[in-house]
Amino acid sequence: MDRLLNRRLVLQLSAAGAGVLVAGRAFAGTVYAAPPPLAKKDTYTVGFAQTGLTNPWRLGESKSMQDEAKKRGYTLVETNANEDTAKQIADVDSLIAQKVDILIFPPRETQALAPSVLKAKAAGIPVILIDRDVDHSIAKPGEDYVTFIGSDFVDQGRRAAEWLTKTMNGNAKIIELEGTTGADPAILRKQGFDDYLKGTFKGTPTAGGPQTGMQIIASQSGDFVRDTGRKVMQTLLQSHPDVTAVYAHNDEMAIGAISALEDAGKTPGKDVILVSIDGENAAMDAIAAGKLGASVESSPFFGPIAFDTMDKYVNGEALPAWIKVEDRFFDSSNAKDFQGKQF
Ligand code: GYE
């Protein structure tokens, strides 16, 4: 996008005295037709509103952001929402009030955090979203925020479904453990997986059409949390003792499900085949032990790419609306090589 043109539009809009409506509240002041510019400086204060620090993935992401900020001599102001969406909204408000130079953060829920992106824009603070995206009907990349850096969640779901279909020879009774309700990865990982089985996958249609033998017998949120995954699995096992496969939207819930299966006297990897997403250390161990079948990678190491993107933005480089992170795949053929090397 042409930054000069953007500045001209900014001037036009501010001259028109336009206001902006954010979640029903009016904001006066400058309205940018593009994300607010960020001037070249020696150092920056970066606001990083983390969703929580309750799993290895989040800890890995925070460390990656902290390490990279340190390396560049930038100040990182990190908040912790303790996996509470209302708290993350308040955290972003407070980072805006502190007038950080830029906000880089993962919106916990795709709709709930979209107005926060618009508020930052109205306050003249550019936003880069990492790992999770907001609803584009409320806030648009390249316009309201700089870009989204993250994985192709739909494709992660598709890859999990493809692996499971092959491994189960097209026949399975599946329990799906969904991530946080309203979170971009939970919505899209479900879409990719379910659509593959229905034969309605968009983009890369399934060669074999609908997988009629692959039945999702229950699908419930485990909030991306290990112990919640264990409890949900424990409950679902009572109504669905005939389960033969589990698709968990992250490794932590798969590991919780493995405990629940073992408690119920089942052998994970034999009686029930599990597939999940992330690629954390505990998943590598579970794959090596034959309990978890496979894990699609979803890397938490956003520090280097997030700060590189920020520098590109400062330099006026054109950026795509989505900076896609490529994901590897872990199964019994390679998990041993990654044990202890992940997060
Ligand atoms: O898969 C999960 C975490 O937003 C992509 O959130 C991320 C997901 C990740 O809690 O483990």
Molecular structure report:
It is a single chain. Helices cover 39% and strands 20% of the residues. The protein is an alpha/beta fold and 343 residues long. It has a six-stranded parallel sheet, with helices on both faces. A six-stranded mixed sheet has the order 9-8-10-11-12-14, sandwiched between helices. A two-stranded antiparallel sheet has the order 1-2. It is elongated and about 60 Å long. The two termini are 36 Å apart. Residues 1-27 have low confidence and may be disordered. Bound molecules: beta-D-fucofuranose (GYE).
Characterize the main sheet: 6 strands, parallel
End-to-end separation in angstroms reads 36 Å
- The average pLDDT score comes to 91
Give the topology string: H per helix, E per strand. Answer: HEEEHEHEHEEHEHEHEHEHEHEEH
Q: What's the CATH class label of the largest domain?
A: Alpha Beta
What fraction strand?
A: 15-25%
Describe the SSE topology.
Elements: H1 3-15, E1 20-22, E2 25-27, E3 45-50, H2 56-72, E4 75-80, H3 85-97, E5 102-105, H4 114-122, E6 127-130, E7 147-151, H5 153-167, E8 172-178, H6 184-198, E9 214-221, H7 226-239, E10 245-248, H8 251-263, E11 273-278, H9 281-288, E12 294-297, H10 303-314, E13 322-325, E14 329-331, H11 335-338
Parallel strand pairs: 3-4, 3-5, 5-6, 6-7, 7-13, 8-9, 8-10, 10-11, 11-12
Antiparallel strand pairs: 1-2, 12-14
The protein binds beta-D-fucofuranose.
Beta-D-fucofuranose binds at residues 55, 57-58, 106, 131-132, 185, 224, 250, 277-278, 298.
